[in-house]
Amino acid sequence: MSDRFPAVTAPLRAIFDEAERGLSKVFTPQWNPLLNLGALGFFFYWIIVGSGVYLFIFFGTGVNKAFDSVEYMTRDQWYAAGLMRSFHRYASDGLVIVMFVHLLRELSLDRYRGVRWFSWLTGVPVLVLVYVAGVSGYWLVWDKLAQYVAIVTTEWLDHLPFFGQPVARNFLSPESLEDRFFTLMIFTHIAIPLIALIVLWLHLQRISRPRINPPRGLAIGAGLALIALSIVDPAVSQGRANLAEVPGAIGLDWFYLGAFPILENLPGRATWTCAVAMLLVVAVAPWLPPMRRPAAAKVDLANCNGCTRCVSDCPYNAITMEPRSDGRPFEGEAVVDPGYCVGCGICAGACPTSTPFRRMSDLIPGIDLPDRSIASIRADTDCEAARLAEGTRIMIFGCMNAEVAEARRSPGVGVVSLTCSGQLPPAFIDYVISRNLADGVIVAGCAESSCLNRRGGAWTTDRVERLRDPRLRERIPSARVRLVWAGRRGAAQLQAEVEAFAERLESLGPYRRVRDRKTAPSEPGRADA
Ligand code: HEM
Ligand code: SF4
Ligand code: SF4
After folding, report:
1. Which one of 54, 110, 257, 515 has the largest count of C-beta atoms within 10 Å of its C-beta?
2. Which numbered ligand comes closest to the C-alpha of 469?
3. Which pLDDT score is estimated for 525?
């Protein structure tokens, strides 16, 4: 099923897979920064806003006041406003880093195409806005670096046909620069992040329960790192700007100003063409080949009782409950918006009618994927079970994004593929074990906390642990079910889990049914047969 990902991003994906595995060992999956990039972006954003408000209290808006006020903060008030200045600076650098890594990660995971175009496209203006806000911040200090940034930026802007008079003229001599220019800059520096926040709100419109706050441990760690950096290497100004002189050697903040030496030295027409072309390529990336659009989930009204579970579990806000259109006495009916649906199948895993025990009628659940129906999963399960030899038998339900499951197929191990671990209704685990199709079930999926479909791993865990509907029935002992979040590069881990699980199952002996009740005894306590 490797066609799920375009080959062109394979090296990038391999880098991320390895880095994520490594960092999960250091930080644990929950606190892994690579698995919390969007949330870290928001975290840095709020630090920038908070520290920015504090700095604004002391900031003097004007050609002569700006530098002095920033110096006062940095030197006289180094322990408060000075620290805030550094905090503001490093959080801004952090924002740029996590934004780009987030972009690359979404690209590597193929989460920029199909119906996900919306999240991608709304991310593009954020790139520009973050840069404009950051660069305008450097002007405000009005030191030699600010002078350099102001001159290079305005000369670059003057290549555009919009401005009646060259903007760079404001920086020809000390007399040509007016206080109102600083008023304009501070306005820009405040307004642009606010616009970015509105765009970010849009960015999350197609994501259900977006994770916008990093876990506490990661937030504390990131905050402490910023404080440590601020103390070890505080942000300082680089000498008062003087438009009568050309600024000499200056240090650049490479995260925001890395392109400035290029803008300074290459012809404006070439750099503008290049910048616009790059931005356009990023913006139209979702529509570039190879195209992929899995079929959207479909509701079968005859089997939908309006329970709303699919609505709660869909990670992409693709399902809404609408008034019943068939006159049946249920509160509502599920309606899928194909423009939002990524085809993950998590809804089918949530639907109470997705039960393989149904034999009287065709297995058509209330909601299902045309490309990988629940009926086809049952057919594959039966087929694999029939193949399993005597001895300890294991059935793996493996998510296609963690392709490693397929390679584990053997005389004692059956493998059934899913679009996402969350596509598996827990009734299938019950079916396999209670019908003696295998001695135990493994559900294998993406690495912990990095489900390609955002929630598949989490919902599966909750369903199997009986914390979320549809719950695994009590009659299935937990010891016979194993969840393995090995990920795409976890072949060895999955193999080791299969071997350990086989040993465990052997020690448990054959399954005997335990009675369904709130506190079912775990094996080997078997209440009834
Ligand atoms: C500071 C800037 C940004 C912030 C704070 C941010 C934040 C977020 C957050 C919180 C999510 C939801 C994560 C989740 O709960 O699973 C998300 C999703 C996403 N972001 Fe960003 N983002 C930013 C910039 C960008 C940029 C520049 C791009 C690409 C151009 C981008 C592309 C995406 C995509 C494609 C998704 C959807 C992932 C999916 O379908 O599961 N983001 N972003
Ligand atoms: S397939 Fe996934 S995205 Fe589509 S409706 Fe079902 S849960 Fe939502
Ligand atoms: S989970 Fe199934 S029965 Fe419940 S609302 Fe969704 S489609 Fe209908």
Report:
1. 257
2. 3
3. 33
Find out whether the beta carbon of 41 lies less than 6 Å from any atom of ligand 1: yes
State the distance from the centre of ligand 3 to the C-alpha of 378, rounded, in angstroms: 19
What φ, ψ does residue 383 adopt, rounded to 5°? Answer: -65, -45
Instruction: Name the residue among 444, 450, 522 with its Cα closest to residue 483.
Output: 444
Ligand nearest to the CA of 196: 1
CA of 343 relative to ligand 2 center, distance in Å? 5
Cα four-point dihedral sign 94, 100, 101, 106 = positive
pLDDT at 249 (0 to 100): 82
Give residue-wise pLDDT tens across range 290-302: 777 889 999 999 9
From 46, 30, 26, 146, select the one nearest 95 (Cα to Cα): 46
Cβ of 341 below 6 Å from ligand 2:
yes
pLDDT at res. 360 = 64
Written as one string, the DSSP assignment of 313-380 is: H-TTS-EEEE--SS--SSS-EEEE-TTT-----HHHHH-TT--TT--SS----SEE-SSS-HHHHHHH
The residue ranges of the chain whose pLDDT is under 50 are 1-2, 519-529
Pair 441, 417: CB distance under 8 Å = no
**Residue 394's Cα: distance from chain center in Å?**
33
Supply the pTM of this predicted model: 0.93
H or E element that contains 87 = helix 83-108
Indicate whether residue 451 lines ligand 3 (CB < 6 A): no
Neighbours of 178 (CB within 10 A): 12
Residue whose Cα lies nearest atom 1 of ligand 3: it is: 351
Q: How far does residue 471's CA lie from ligand 2's centre (Å)?
A: 19
Atom of ligand 2 nearest to the CA of 313: 7
Strand order in the sheet with 440-444: 413-418, 394-399, 440-444, 481-484
Task: Note the pLDDT of residue 106.
Answer: 97
Q: Any idea what the Cα angle at residue 391 is, between residues 416 and 420, rounded to 5°?
A: 15
Helix (H) or strand (E) holding 298: strand 298-299
Distance (Å) from CA 104 to ligand 2 centroid: 24
- Helices then strands, counting H and E runs in the chain, come out as 17, 8
pLDDT of residue 181: 83
Q: Is 99 in the pocket of ligand 2 (CB under 6 A)?
A: no
Closest CA to 241 of 99, 74, 68: 68
Residue-level pLDDT at 516: 58
* pLDDT confidence of residue 51: 97
pLDDT value at residue 519? 45
Q: What is the whole-number distance in angstroms between the Cα of residue 240 and the centre of ligand 1?
A: 39
**Ligand 3 centre distance from Cα of residue 478 (Å):** 26
Q: What is the spatial distance between Cα 73 and Cα 89, in angstroms, rounded to a whole number?
A: 14
Residues 6+ away with beta carbon under 8 Å from 462: 468
pLDDT at 422: 98
- State the pLDDT at residue 111: 94
- Tell the residue nearest (CA) to atom 4 of ligand 2: 341
